[in-house]
Amino acid sequence: MRVALIDPSLFTLPYDERLAEALQRRGHRIEFFGKALGPREAAPATVPLRRHFYGELRALGAERWPPALAKVAKGLSHIRAMESLVRVLARERPDVIHFQWLPLPVVDRAFLARFARIAPIVITCHDSQPFNANPGAAVQRVGATAILARFDRVIIHTDQARARLAAYGVEPRRIARIAHGFLDESAPAVAPPTIDADRPVRFLLFGKIKPYKGIDLMIEAVKRLPPAARRRIEVLVVGKPYMDTTALVAAAAGMPEIRFEFRFVPDEEMAELFRWADVLAFPYREIEMSGVLMAALKTARPMVASDIGGFAELLRDGETGFLVPPGDVPRLAHAIGRLVDEPGTRVRMAAGLVDLVRAIPSWDAIAAETEALYAAAIAERRTDEGRRPAAAPSRAA
Fold first, then answer.
1. pLDDT at 386 over 80
2. Which of 8, 15, 189, 209 could lock 241 by a disulfide, CB 3.0 to 4.6 Å apart?
3. What are the DSSP calls for 290-311, one per residue?
4. What is the pLDDT of residue 187?
5. Distance between CA 212 and CA 249 in Å, rounded?
6. What backbone phi and psi angles, to 5 degrees, belong to 157?
């Protein structure tokens, strides 16, 4: 099978790469379309990347332009790239076209019928609240949910997404839940981490710094801890900012227990950060499935997370972590306090995570399910085409 895999901005590059690798192992040919990469961005190691999107912006140095101008330029570049992609795929004739993201739905919807004339179209819905309910531009909201009903198949990772997509008008038969796999190839922990009682309990918030991640909620929760607990906690926030961080820094002023490292973190450093931590914190306001969660699970660090999406469906409250209602600062503070005060609870939760990791499907299993979904979409398309009445002969014939 020949698959066009498309992620214009490479929003989920690690996921894309793992899926493409597994599909290739099953004998499929993957044509992977994404953006032009910057000097600090690593290309996929095993799946050739066709750098189809935004290359002229990279060449012109658009990252240094005023934000408003850069957004307009990116929108125009995106339109040109989608028009070109239709022509490329019409020539190459893949068996299925699989989108990971449509970054500009109000524009992208105009192209879907043309893609659908080439092959069945599939999308992985990574966020059933598009862009985690926090798009980078207001125009990204337009049509972001209605567009999902136009696909032959929609892949989801959680039951939360199934209910939301049904509400958006996507036919249930078109929705398929396929698990999210681990994003790295490191060996999982085989035993809970040891407890070091001679230092503060280390909490890590890792990943892209965005409003929905709830870092402000974590700061407020730490403020509410009793003084004794605050003296025994260390909170590290690490990640590249995609928002103005001034308010976060101001909120944590006078709190030596909270440190920020606003920077890009290479993959090889990520596992080291997880091992540094005693607890991983995910006080998110909104999420579908977290790539950071899937990267972190193997390290068997107990977690405090919002009771939504993949956190709610993978973690067991009180067994592998504490789940709290999103935005509930008092409950978050209570959970943090317990994890600081109860080393035995942390050990027990870590042991539960070791067991949980063994139950996560392999990428080969995920690829097999994805292959079956492709085959079903292709078969359905052929059946539908066979039912269409033949065109009437022209009078000239």
1. no
2. 209
3. -HHHHHHGGGT--EEEESSHHH
4. 80
5. 17
6. -115, -10
